[in-house]
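If you are new to this repository, start here. Below is one unmodified record pulled from the training split, so you can see the exact layout before writing a loader.
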Amino acid sequence: MVEIKSVTPGSPAARAGICAGERLVSIEGHPVRDVLDYMFYAADTDLTLIIDRDGTQRSVSIQKDEYDDLGLDFASFLMDQKQSCRNKCVFCFIDQMPPGMRETLYFKDDDARLSFLQGNYVTLTNMTQEDVDRIIQMKLGINVSVHTTDPELRVKMMHNRFAGEKLDYLWQMARAGVQLNCQIVLCPGLNDGPALERTLTDLGQMLPHLTSVAVVPVGLSKYREGLYPLTGFTAETAAAAIDTIERYQAQFLARHGTRAVFPSDEFFLLAGRPIPEADYYEEYPQYENGVGMLRSLADEFHDALKSAEAEDLPRTVTIATGRSPYEFLAALAREAEAQFPGLTVQVVPIRNDFFGETITVTGLITGQDLTAQLEGRPLGDQLLLSSSMIRRDSDVFLDDWTIGQVEERLGISIRLVPSDGYELLDAMLGIVY
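And here is the target side for that same chain:
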């Protein structure tokens, strides 16, 4: 039973006389506990709702077009509390953050509903058999953080005594045809080598219902005192991980017509190997996990160059980026400069002093590191930053510096650029639509 915060005027619910402050009990006889129940059971055209007001219940009939929203709004998006993580993973980045940051950055969600709705990854340790049955009934896709299929090793890595046995949920969902995306955070000396081979062998048995697997390298900040002793990847160990993954890719491609498992871009950068061509990534199923993002960016950028025209030259811009993609972006900048002689693009790698020099990705650059390393140097007409540095739907960096503060300190306007090659070239050339 969920309290109704408001009712959209003119909506099916409003026309049926449902009011704010009442409670939604059930739809078509199915109890409504959260947003998944609401979305799934409210999709039909002819519905019977049970509505409660002060302990008195009534039946309400509603007719609407299929998938049209009923028009009910609730206090929270999930219509329930977020489920927090019960694990203490040895590689968890949240445990490696400095103190004194905003409270929301320390919250670890592990919520299967957010997996379906927003693409978050879940570990299964929060889930019950009832949750699994509901996912199967609703035919929901889900993203799962697997890390290893060795039950004992999974318990060790996640510091949760149920982590191993919960792998059975993964098999249940695969057998039922649930579309699964999985990820493996790879830690040298822990779940790589033979452990990775076992994991990929086991996951391969779930094809074709296993849509994809992303393998990403562990990220280690300087705030690891008292935590499990982990080491980062070297060029040699990153290359070995790629070789193992690509051996399994070849097997899966021959048997099932898909590579299924993909190393993240960071492995190629660490190993000093070129980013593969687009067909390597098939349909880019793990794009949001940093798999194929650089290839997609480059291909879009090259397409944009074929028809681009520039009017506001000469122009000088600075791109501030993480140290790992620096060479890749610098090469794109040189191509743009060659095509547009009046364009100057300075690409500056930012050292991550806030989290530590071992963090080299762009998305974890903070406002204070940007200002400290760019202040006093000529930046040109505009500073271009990846939108991944900014908290979603805000203008705030991870350290709570705002875009406005950085602009004021550096004396230059900032343009946020998504991971899109067309928009990157537009930003370089100063094109605004």
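Two things worth knowing about this chain: Residues 6 and 20 are 5 Å apart (CA to CA). The chain is about 30% helix and 20% strand.
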